[in-house]
Write a structure and sequence with these properties.
Layout lengths: L4 E8 L5 H12 L4 E9 L11 H14 L3 E4 L5 H11 L2 E4 H12 L3 H16 L2 H4 L20 H36 L4 E6 L5 H9 L16 E6 L5 E6 L9 H6 L5 H5 L2 E7 L5 H14 L9 E5 L6 H12 L4 E3 L8 H12 L4 E8 L3 H10 L1 E7 L3 E8 L1 H12 L5
Parallel strand pairs: 1-2, 1-3, 3-4, 5-7, 5-8, 8-9, 9-10
Antiparallel strand pairs: 6-7, 11-13, 12-13
Length: 420
């Protein structure tokens, strides 16, 4: 189906938001909209009826007619009334930032949980805007008893159907969430440390994920290419195993419907032993994007000031002087790495940093294991770092560095050995 000619508008109050217009265009292009024009729109005072001033609305009405625009994306929040009034003035479909992001999420979600969360967010958004579709408030229809008595308006009936569907989705999400919690509990029994990649959308998380794990996760130069969390086993330089998680990208002014709907997806971040913030340092607004990510993390309860590793990605896109400045900044911070997920430059240093951080709570233990207990010895070599070993005629005397969880698990195995 042919995509309508699309006009993208970004209303702004301060003049330093040129990157936000480019981001809005990128969001539109992420679902293959045919963007024929885009413009920054100064907004001194939001108008209750149309958000934009009457002169601005009239000027764009001429543009829309001339360019045969069928869809206008307003990169801001529109009330249902503002959206309806702009559609009347421009005689075309109008959607706001929330509606656009919901469209993208609906097109991209693949897992059952992802599709349920998107549908729940979309229904919540749609519920407040039913008046857009049903302007015939005088039309009445009879009820069927269980749906409401005679005289119920079409809007009330549709709202009732939406409420019923939302209740059902919430129940389904509880079941999905319970299943995911069981999976997390099972991972804790393995147990491998969990490393979660977070960052602004299109910062290069999936490309880095593929580089580190040799996975085939979709990685495109596109906003919201990843929605559903993906996990893979990662082998660190020490030989230890970890689980690497690729999460949904963050974005400024994330619609509140989606903050609530995708909180469950971001629970993987809260469970992580190490959170890695991937930044696109080739962008002029990299600092602003970083602040947006940290704001969302704080809302999730993450202490961003303690132990957050920063990956300064896409240094291959910088000129020599800018790259040198980034490397100088990184040298002053032990928890940051400059790299290119595309070329692989800096990746080995990142893996070493992972090793150091997830092993920071390791205990140095002196253990005596009988030589005939080959399974216990093999387990220690597989899960710990054997610093020193001395054997006598009956025992191996080892100095082993183990995670606190692994130390507890080894003690449990010694007390309750598996049945043979």
């Amino acid at each position: 189906m042919a995509r309508p000619a699309t006009l993208v508008l970004h209303p702004y109050r301060s003049p330093d938001q040129g990157e936000r217009l480019a981001e809005a265009v990128g969001l539109a292009q992420a679902i293959d909209l045919n963007v024929v024009a885009s413009e920054m729109v100064p907004l001194s005072r939001p108008r209750p009826a149309t958000l934009l001033g009457s002169g601005t609305v009239a000027r764009f009405a001429e543009w829309i007619l001339e360019l045969e625009v069928g869809l206008v994306v307003v990169d801001s929040h529109l009330t249902p009334g503002q959206q309806r009034n702009l559609e009347k003035a421009w005689n075309c479909k109008v959607i706001d930032r929330t509606g656009l992001i919901l469209e993208i999420f609906g097109a991209r979600a693949r897992t059952r949980e992802g599709t349920l969360q998107v549908e729940l967010a979309a229904l919540s958004y749609q519920k407040s805007r039913l008046v857009r579709s049903w302007t015939h408030l005088e039309r009445q229809r009879g009820g069927f008893g269980f749906m409401g008595g005679p005289g119920e308006t079409q809007i009330e009936a549709d709202r009732r159907l939406i409420d019923t569907r939302m209740v059902r989705i919430k129940k389904d999400l509880i079941e999905v969430s319970r299943t995911r919690a069981l999976h997390r509990k099972a991972r804790r029994r393995v147990p491998y440390p969990i490393i979660a990649l977070v960052g602004y959308t299109n910062a290069g998380k999936s490309t880095l994920f593929n580089r580190l794990t040799k996975a085939g996760v979709v990685a495109r130069d596109q906003l919201f290419a990843t929605l559903d969390p993906t996990m893979r086993l990662l082998t660190l330089p020490s030989g230890r195993a970890a689980i690497l998680s690729d999460t949904v990208g963050f974005i400024s002014d994330l619609p509140h419907e989606l903050v609530a709907a995708f909180r469950a997806t971001l629970e993987e971040v809260l469970e992580a032993d190490l959170i890695v913030h991937v930044r696109d340092v080739s962008r002029p607004d990299s600092t602003r994007q970083s602040q947006d990510v940290e704001t969302v993390l704080r809302r999730l309860g993450v202490d961003v000031d303690q132990g957050l590793v920063e990956v300064w990605n896409k240094i291959d896109l910088l000129d020599e002087a800018a790259a040198l400045e980034i490397h100088n900044q990184v040298r002053r911070n032990d928890l940051s790495v400059a790299l290119s997920a595309v070329t692989g430059e800096g990746v080995e240093r990142l893996l070493t940093l992972f090793d150091d951080r997830v092993g920071a709570d390791r205990q140095l233990l002196s253990l005596d294991v009988r030589l005939e207990d080959g399974a216990a010895l093999a387990w220690l070599y597989r899960h710990g770092d054997v610093v020193r070993r001395h054997d006598d005629t009956s025992c191996a005397h080892l100095l082993v560095r183990l995670d606190a969880r692994d130390a507890g698990r080894f003690e449990h195995l010694r007390i309750h050995p598996p049945a043979r």
